[in-house]
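Support case: user asked for a sample of complex input and structure output to validate their parser. Sending the pair below.
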Amino acid sequence: MKKLLLISLVTCLFFACDNSYSPIILDSHCRDTLSCNPSKAQRVCYSTIFQSIEYIPIPTDTNFLIGNIDKLLVVDDFFIIMDKYITHSLFVFNKLTQEKIQIQKQGSGPGDYVVLQDIYWDSKQQVVKIYCNVRKKILHYDIQGHFLREETLPYRSNRVFSIGNHYTYYVDYLRNPTIIKNNKYPNLMLTTQDGKVLCGADYFSADISTSLVYSTLPQFSVMNDTMLAIKPDHSQTVYYVTKDNIIPAHYLNFNNHNVDHRYWNKVTETGMTFKKITDYSNAIGLCESYYYMENKDVIIFKYRYREQLHTVLYSKKSHKLLDANPFYNDMDQITPFQPVLVQGNKVYCLLQAEDIITASSFLYEQQSVPESLLNTTQALDNPIIVVFTLKDF
Amino acid sequence: MNIRNIIIGIVIVVLISFDGIVLYKYRQIQNRYWDAVRENLVLSNKDVSLSGKLSKNIILQQESEGLTVQTIKVQDVEHKREVPLQSLIKTDQQSVLCFRFRENDCDACVQQSLSLLKEVSEYFPEKGIAILSGYGNVRQFQAYAQSTDKHLFLVYNVDTVSIAAENQEQPYFFVLTHEYKIQNVFIVCKEDAQLTAEYLHSMAHKYWAVHKH
């Protein structure tokens, strides 16, 4: 009879299962909290944080003109640049040899992309992977710009990254009805290669139009070969993605200034516009955090509080958090702190050639920028990559 | 006694299995039903917003219609100089189909329109299509122009075209006639690419089909 009951129980359990993924991750499970108080922000100088600056001009000629740098990857001496909107190209140049190539393959044939949605470096396979979310393809190119192969993905998203044998997808207010579960869509999910969803996180807080909210399309920070970090815009949770799981790692706590139900209620009101929402957010003093980047030593992000953009730098070694407003450039007096990549102890920013030309007489006077750079820069040159080396702080 | 227990056991297992199967199928049907309801709701909301968008576009198009081009200067990438917009018209009979976009316009709409333009470019005469981009930065414009099919399109950069169609965030088309008038203004609607394709075909027919023969 016991056997009979056991069989019955197993049968019941078998039919109680369904194919939904788990677990639903809650923000309250975060391991660490980073507390920011906008009223206690202080003036911080670049020299407090950085020990040196290096300038890397990107070579310019008519066949190598970059419209905008939407993403930068640094692999040894190679710089891989994605220009998503203007030339729809990938630019690769070698800092040492000055060798340069442009990959422009818009189309629908093998190796082509319709939209250059995202790129990343696969360190295991030593290839650049280009993601087209219209063709739902990942295209593999070697560092010399040769097309190797392509693979098909089951979902569309804004960002993709392969981790172990799995894929992680990030969507930014782009609901994907194919993965709806319990009336929720995950922004961030981990799947197997054939698309089985293993884990989903950061559900949409409200049904919103992308034109209503300021969105920076966050990118994955590569912590190491088996871990990525990402913080969706308007979420205060930083997620770690491993090859098997998605873990809420840090919670950015602004206390009374957190983006909460007040914001989402406003966003979903009828007749809302971008300006009305921004004005409301400024009026009640919400802190909207963006541009999150992290590596094993440091966390860098920005947040907007009452029309002021604060820069936050957090040292994981000393647990010291600097909330900088203003973040004063006392080093070269010209490069704005808008990181495009944080890798090791290097922070990569961009300096526009025309800004150097405009401020050239001031810069000559200050001698804060190498004279050779001032002498050789032309107004229509490609942007200059500025590499800040971090101090221990 | 034992046989009776076994039979009862088998019956229980069969019944539970049957229940389980029925429950599982019911859940599947229910999920499909709610997904369909949700999808229909989203679609009907989309229809309402699309119709509002098209109505607004029609008003802006009408407002822009028939205006004479005054002193609009465009940057010519080939000669690296500024020229008046009128200089696009080379002969008395020629009209030019212009596609206007700015850097903050919806990128998907711009790409969709450019792809459709490429498809129909064979119906237009040489130098019959001009792209009027709106980059604030000269290098960005040059990078864009460099990456464009220059054998298919004329490429210029212009700060502002002072017509009502400029007061929204979608790219738009218009025909610049030999009388230097802006006609047949059409604001792109991302949700309906077919409309853009039909517009381009009808413009090709209206302005250039006769000359073609």
